[in-house]
Amino acid sequence: MSNSLEDHKECGRCNRKLKDAKSRERGFGRVCFKKHREEVAKAEFERNQQRLELEGVG
Questions:
Q1: Pfam families from the xrefs (predicted)?
Q2: Which domain range does residue 5 map to?
Q3: Would you say the pTM of this structure is higher than 0.85?
Q4: Neighbours of 12 (CB within 10 A)
Q5: Residues in Cβ contact with 7 at an 8 Å cutoff, skipping those fewer than 6 apart
């Protein structure tokens, strides 16, 4: 088991039980972590697009 200050027992996205130490540290299972990263990247891209549009660049 890891020495992380916070280990999660359930996935923060789908609420399934997390089985391995790395997933418990991240708070997401392997598949949900990938989806989470994609969602974060998409949201960041959209924020950047809006900022560029407001600045008249886009």
A1: DUF6011
A2: 1-58
A3: no
A4: 14
A5: 1, 21, 24, 25
**Distance (Å, rounded) from C-alpha 17 to C-alpha 55?**
45
> DSSP for 1-58?
----S---SB-TTT-PBP-SHHHHHHTS-HHHHHHHHHHHHHHHHHHHHHHHHHTT--
**Structural domain count of the chain:** 1
Looking at residue 46, its amino acid is E
Q: How confident is the model at residue 7 (pLDDT cuts 50, 70, 90)?
A: confident
> What is the C-alpha to C-alpha distance for residues 24 and 29, in angstroms, rounded to an integer?
8
